[in-house]
Amino acid sequence: MGLLDRINLSVLKSSTTVPQSLSKVYIHLVFSTKDRARSLSDECRPDLHLYLGGILKGLGCTPVEINTEPDHAHILFLLSRTEPLSEIVGHLKKSSNDWLRMRGPEFSEFFWQGGYGAFSVSQSRLEHVQAYIRNQREHHRVSSFQDEFREFLKAHRIEYDERYVWD
User: Fold this and answer.
1) Domains in the chain: how many in total?
2) Residue 72's CB: how many other CB atoms inside 10 A?
3) Residue 55 belongs to a domain
């Protein structure tokens, strides 16, 4: 077999294989209600968590842990291989905003804040982050959402301008 035959055989073999795109990226997403209004009652939270999980599944993401406090949300999920993070966040916030508004007049003025924080989570820290999200009520007895968010930014070495973080 000559060199040209080996090259043609190599091209033929490589054109019949299907490349795989593999990833496993966990995201800890954090965002607040507009102006940190304490709008999310304990009564609506379980249904909201289910709804947020359903949106994630519909976008090809795997929800891992979801919890909300009256003024913010923590969502841990496995990022879709094909959807950009910013679009996932946009869908989550828009869909859940509309869903909450349909639940009753107490949500007629509900909005999420414009921005968000998204932080990568390693496999080795996954259980720790899940426990942290589950224990939000306890955590916020001693720390505000704003202090918590600043700590996330600091821990992940994200530079920010305080004037543009809060809305």
Assistant:
1) 1
2) 22
3) yes
On whether residue 1 sits in a domain, the answer given is: no
* Residue-by-residue pLDDT tens, the chain, 167 positions: 665 555 555 555 555 566 788 889 999 999 999 999 999 999 999 999 999 999 999 999 999 999 999 999 999 999 999 999 999 999 999 999 999 999 999 999 999 999 999 999 999 999 999 999 999 888 888 888 888 888 888 998 999 888 888 77
CATH of the domain at 150: 3.30.70.1290
Task: Residue 151: give the domain boundaries.
Answer: 22-160
Q: Check: CB of residue 18 under 8 Å from CB of residue 24.
A: no
The pTM assigned to this predicted structure is: 0.84
Q: Are 112 and 39 in contact (CB under 8 A)?
A: no
